[in-house]
Amino acid sequence: MTLLAPPHPLEKRVLLRRFPEPRTEPVWIDEYLRTGGYEALRKALSMEPEQIVEEVKKSALRGRGGAGFPTGMKWSFVDRKSPKPKYVVVNADEGEPGTCKDRILMGYDPHRLIEGVLIGGRAIGACRGWIYIRGEYREYIDIMDRAIGEAYERGMLGPNVMGSGWEFHLSTHTGAGSYECGEETALLESLEGKRGNPRLKPPFPATSGAFQCPTIVNNVETFCAVPDIILNGGDWYASLGTPKNGGTRLVCLSGHIARPGVYEVPLGMNMLTILNEIGGGVWKGRKLKAVIPGGSSSPVLKAEECDIPADYDSLAKIGSMLGSGATVVLDETTDMAKVLARLMKFYAHESCGWCIPCREGTTWLKKITARLEEGIGSERDIETIDRISQSMLGRTFCPLGDAAAMPAMAIVRKFRDEILEKLGHAEAFAPVPGAQPLVVL
């Protein structure tokens, strides 16, 4: 799969504007400076911190990691008068299945991320930042380390950022490849050298984050949007999207799509336009069956539900979510029982076990959906999946329990007939009449 796809006329490239064509080498600092890099930081250094936060608020930028929380509002929660040091943390874990966009930004435009982090740090009065990258991204860790070294050499990082007298230091931190550490409080635990279990909130990181100090945590795409917001103004960025959904969004098209890859589109573009015009439609001329719109944790959409704007609020209205922007296309030949079983196997493996509803729930969902995949379950299993999922929703420290429950409920409710039909054709595996089940739920 070619991650950085050739540009499409319907794209609106802001984050990817330095890539008019697919390239193999990152934009190092000389090229970055030549193309307007660090001008936004220079402007931010001349602004009051409150002005930076207000511009980000006006931009309607929402967190691109999955939750979609307004970025400017998150930054405003930090008490700049606190005597404790303030920190900035970049969530570059990118563990959501189907998501492959942050590696594009780090791999090809690493200084854009550094500049966004510096502006965020300036906005809250921070002195230190970390880029938390999953261990499997060795190549991108090396790229970021080299870019950070260049920024120190040119005075963008260090004791006197661009001669302003403000001190800020930045480094990478390698994760161990745990999906759980994509959750911000588990990430902070891991950053502090502990097991990556989530924390109970409140307090939120803005008041007690890394090492119990005020901290903002945003993902790579979110920070990368900030330089253009400061340069061109929050109103300009907001005008690219829809009300309350400002700007552009990186969409990772994968699965049964003719032209898979990462594309940048205005928020609110119709999902069918993204799939059919930019993605080239369903591969091999087949029909669309379903779409997972925002990473594996987002509830699946049937084909007839996809004629909607691809933004946070529109998808929420029909019971799904934009999430990480990872759009997985499923064609008419897809076995939805198999999709369900594969997802539950993943979440059972990645649950940290900290919360009982998640630990037990994901384990049972994995076992039951494995039966359905083989066609040896019963109709009662479908009701059990729905009941277990409802008992997990909102009852865990972090959203991993929800991330497993939501797609499970959506698939068994929307594709119930298909799963029942599969059970009806599994005569060779039918239980002996009168036999007792091994496990009674």
Task: Write a structural description.
It contains 17 helices and nine strands. The protein has helices at about 30-35, 40-45, 50-60, 70-75, 100-110, 110-125, 140-155, 185-190, 220-230, 235-240, 270-280, 310-315, 335-350, 355-375, 380-390, 400-415, 415-425; strands spanning about 85-90, 130-135, 170-175, 215-220, 250-255, 260-265, 290, 300, 325-330. The strands form two sheets. A five-stranded mixed sheet has the order 6-5-9-7-8, covered by helices on one side. A four-stranded parallel sheet has the order 3-2-1-4, sandwiched between helices. Helix 2 (about 40-45) runs parallel beside helix 6 (about 110-125), helix 2 (about 40-45) crosses helix 9 and helix 13 (about 335-350) packs antiparallel against helix 16.
Which helices and strands, and how do they pair?
Elements: H1 29-34, H2 39-45, H3 49-58, H4 71-76, E1 87-92, H5 102-108, H6 110-124, E2 128-133, H7 138-153, E3 169-174, H8 184-191, E4 215-219, H9 220-232, H10 234-239, E5 248-255, E6 261-266, H11 271-278, E7 288-292, E8 301-302, H12 312-317, E9 326-331, H13 336-350, H14 356-374, H15 379-392, H16 400-414, H17 416-424
Parallel strand pairs: 1-2, 1-4, 2-3, 5-9
Antiparallel strand pairs: 5-6, 7-8, 7-9
